[in-house]
Amino acid sequence: MKSIIITGGAGFIGSHVVRLFVNKYPDYKIINVDKLTYAGNLANLKDIENAPNYRFVKADICDFQTIYSLMQEEKVVGVIHLAAESHVDRSIKDPFSFAQTNVMGTLSLLQAAKLYWDSLPEKYEGKRFYHISTDEVYGALELNHPEGINSPQTQHKVYGDDFFRETNKYQPHSPYSAAKASSDHFVRAFHDTYGLPTIVTNCSNNYGPYQFPEKLIPLFINNIRHRKPLPVYGKGENVRDWLYVEDHARAIDLIFHKGKIADTYNIGGFNEWKNIDIVKVLIKVVDEALGRKENEDLDLITYVTDRAGHDLRYAIDATNLQKELGWSPSLQFEEGIRKTVQWYLNNQAWLDNITSGEYEKYYEEMYKNR
Ligand code: NAD
Ligand code: TYD
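Output (structure tokens, whole complex):
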């Protein structure tokens, strides 16, 4: 059995990746290393927790000694690294924990993998260190077409003339993206300096089941259901490129197995949406699902002070990944959103468990001062 560490496997994207690998590869032993911060939730993995090829280890990736010993004990041949502090608004309030986990934690994992693999006779042969990152490292794009245009070049609706490509320079604006950018640089530095077999991918915004309800889509689904205000930052004109989380997990599987060492791949949905348009779609779909009158909840929309340094537009050009490895998103957004809304409505207990207690206090605090 090949042992693979997946970090952050109790979080949103990580849980989908762990599930996919545990079910698809019975000959891999999947070791989920997660500190279980507020964002980590073992309830995300109930369906596979007793699988014979799965092990959960509660650990902080910054704890070098524990990670190094685990790699030796389990004879780890691959790392898929997702553990991170991931919410931009939190990074504005508390940048230190972002630098700690995203930068120092990544460095600790890199060093542990390097030292352990260096100690083996075959060294880096058959090994892989795959770092999952974000498109936010590239900064923000212009919004040249405020109403969006159907671009014959890209075959989908776009809001600007430019896209994030793998060759774009890094221009992070938030403490979150600055910390992720720094971790990407460390990963590449370990390849260039020591020859560690690394791969980096930068993905656009994900949505789907098990996303922590501080992020736009699950937060708003929950608020619409409970008829709470929907805090739209600024004018709601910021644009994001949305990808269904299982499509991201599929891309990670493909790239982990077939991607070129030392390469970077951008992953995106070819699916740009203005925030305010997403909010309106969510209201429509949730109201419909709950048997409410059409658009009954439009008046929940509440424009609030904009996020500091709010990036205007993200849009990924994923043609490289499409051409090289044949990946493309499998779901249309309308279908993905319906599935997602239905999942949150069917899993109210999962949501209630999170949105009570400590998290609720944090959330109230966050909005008190806006
Ligand atoms: P998440 O916040 O839902 O989950 C993060 C997980 O990491 C949690 O389970 C948490 O307990 C764990 N964790 C945090 N600090 C840790 C530490 N020090 N040691 C061990 N575990 C720790 O995040 P997510 O949205 O699933 O994102 C996963 C990864 O994908 C991140 O690296 C993020 O930057 C990247 N990413 C996310 C998106 C997105 O839209 N969510 C898009 C592109 C890239
Ligand atoms: P988010 O889900 O936090 O992802 P990211 O900041 O990583 O893109 O936010 C998505 C977009 O929605 C972003 O432009 C900020 C906006 N937003 C709101 O308008 N209100 C909210 O309450 C939240 C959480 C986000």
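The longest helix spans residues 95-118.
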